[in-house]
Specification:
- The complex is a heterotrimer of chains A (119), B (162) and C (93).
- By secondary structure, chain A is mainly alpha-helical.
- Chain A is 76% helix and 0% strand.
- Chain A has one domain.
- By secondary structure, chain B is mostly helical.
- Helix content of chain B is 62%, strand content 11%.
- With 93 residues, chain C is mostly helical.
- Chain C has three helices and no strands.
- The longest helix of chain C is centred in the middle third of the chain and has 26 residues.
- Classes of the chains: A mainly alpha (119), B mainly alpha (162), C mainly alpha (93).
- Chains A and C meet through helix 1, helix 2 and helix 3 of A and helix 1, helix 2 and helix 3 of C.
């Protein structure tokens, strides 16, 4: 932190956003451990990808703007980039998951422990 | 000349991104950005064979806020499911939705919206484009999901792109 | 140093570290290759959030550039791995 004194509302809002963002990320990653199969786990990571990252980016915009005493919104770039790319990765993984489950079912091998049935 | 509007929108967005990346409005950056964006637009026109024709930009703004609210709401819902009892965590399943949207850009936007909303993931489109498969984390009422997708997203996307 | 922002930053750093530990456990345990790619994808998003939090703490703009680069390379990496799992090759002729 630099030594500049920040107003109370920025302090409060920034802290709230930062805490909720990191908590959402934590819950999303916890979902990777707690959810039963690959397809369900995919929903967990979306938490950190969307609102978790969004809250932290908002805090970053807020604090940087206060420190620089002008509106800094370069973080919008990361938001735009994540909006357009994270669904691509998720859909590709979803399709490869379905494809490989189907191949395994065709080969009648019982190699995987996951009990989900591809649609 | 009918294709011109979509081309300029793309150029303007690229130009804005360049200025944002450099975080400056210096004349040199303006000139360099202008040259780069025009060159990129001209050279990539051949690999973007289909042109989007978005209209009703006000509807697009409305859709943005609808999606934002849905993302916030379903974030909380999915967090509750992950932290909640084991019964609800084993409720995920695939389901099918009949689709009327045909525009490829509209479908791409729908894929992004469905996947970016926690709780639903796009899982595939039938070859004729009429049936969409999605995977839902907490599937209890199929009709409710069909209603949400068709009325909240698909109707607005058809207004924008078709 | 005033107010509760330093506390919030410490909390966020601890939470994201825990999240990265959970992700690493899933990365090591598997069971399928898709689970590992999914965990790696989450790991880069988490590290990006950590970089942004550090940027808030130290008030430096360099962390933003690091986060942007992590986003770029992370997407290319996980998309290539997912594509490989789907088709057996990354760039098709």
């Amino acid at each position: 932190m630099t030594d500049g004194v920040i107003p109370f509302w920025v302090d409060l809002l920034g802290s709230l956003l930062l805490i909720s963002g990191s908590l959402l990320t934590l819950i999303g990653s916890l979902g990777l451990l707690r959810l039963p199969n690959l397809f369900a786990r995919m929903h967990g990571i979306t938490l950190g990808n969307t609102l978790g990252l969004g809250c932290v980016l908002l805090t970053s915009i807020l604090i940087a703007s206060i420190h620089a005493e002008r509106f800094v919104f370069q973080e919008v770039l990361i938001t735009l980039f994540m909006i357009s790319t994270s669904p691509v990765t998720t859909i590709l993984l979803m399709r490869s998951g379905i494809y490989r489950r189907r191949m395994d079912a065709d080969r009648k091998t019982a190699g995987h422990q996951d009990s989900s049935n591809p649609g | 000349m009918k294709r011109w509007p979509s081309l300029t929108l793309f150029t303007v967005i690229l130009f804005a991104l360049w200025l944002l990346l450099n975080d400056s409005l210096a004349p040199g950056q303006l000139l360099l950005g202008l040259m780069l964006t025009v060159a990129i637009t001209a050279s990539t026109a051949a690999i973007r064979p289909l042109r989007a024709h978005p209209h009703h930009l006000l509807t697009a703004l409305g859709l943005f806020f609808v999606v934002l609210i849905d993302i916030i709401r379903s974030n909380i819902a999915v967090a509750g499911i992950i932290l909640g009892p084991a019964k609800r965590r084993f409720n995920s399943a695939f389901m099918k939705i009949p689709l009327d949207l045909r525009d490829p850009y509209g479908l791409a936007a729908l894929a992004c919206i469905i996947t970016a909303t926690p709780g639903t993931v796009w899982a595939g489109l039938s070859p004729d484009g009429g049936t969409l498969t999605i995977h839902v984390l907490d599937l209890q009422d199929e009709e409710a999901w069909v209603r949400i997708i068709k009325q909240r997203y698909e109707r607005r996307l058809m207004e924008i792109f078709e | 140093m005033n107010g509760m922002l330093p506390w919030a930053i410490s909390f966020a750093l601890i939470a994201v570290t825990l999240a990265m530990i959970f992700t690493a456990i899933r990365l090591l345990r598997g069971p399928a290759a898709e689970d590992r790619v999914l965990a790696l994808d989450t790991l880069y998003v988490n590290s990006m959030i950590m970089m942004l939090t550090l940027g808030i703490q130290f008030g430096s703009r360099f962390y933003f550039d690091i986060a942007l680069l992590i986003a770029l390379f992370g997407f290319v990496g996980s998309a290539a791995m997912a594509k490989f799992l789907l088709r057996g090759e990354v760039i098709e002729p």
